[in-house]
From TrEMBL:
Keywords: Ribonucleoprotein, Ribosomal protein, RNA-binding, rRNA-binding. Transmembrane segments: none annotated. Belongs to the bacterial ribosomal protein bL9 family. Residues 13-40 form the Ribosomal protein L9 domain. One of its GO terms (cellular component) is ribosome. This is Large ribosomal subunit protein bL9. HAMAP family: Ribosomal_bL9. The gene is rplI. The keyword Transmembrane helix does not apply.
Amino acid sequence: MKIILTHEVSGLGAAGDVVDVKDGYARNYLIPRKFAIRWTKGGEKDVAQIRRARKIHEIQTIEQANQIKAQLEGVKVRLAVRSGDSGRLFGSVTPADIASAIKASGGPEVDKRRIELGAPIKTLGSHETSVRLHPEVAAKVSLEVIAA
């Protein structure tokens, strides 16, 4: 099935790209989560509009991405969450939580969709996350999860 991506999807493409994926992946995952829309001949107009919007929000150069990377790696991010006696969290830490914690710690504003978690964060302690700033630049953020 041919689709138009409306958001960046890891391993597939960026917003505005027209890609061909398996029908089930598009129908059951990408389209319901608003990551993509079905491709139509009239949808080509949407592609140009999505690409214009992407250019506005996108980090333009590698130098700019490296500056933001230096800021992110220099910030100590602490996130207070509710946890049980054993250090296990009630739920897990989401990318939105991490993005707001980075902003609260004095770091730059980061889009939650650019934060990549290797595994769900469900315990207190120190964790590493990755922030994809540019296709060629990713920043490692150290996150300290503490009890609230």
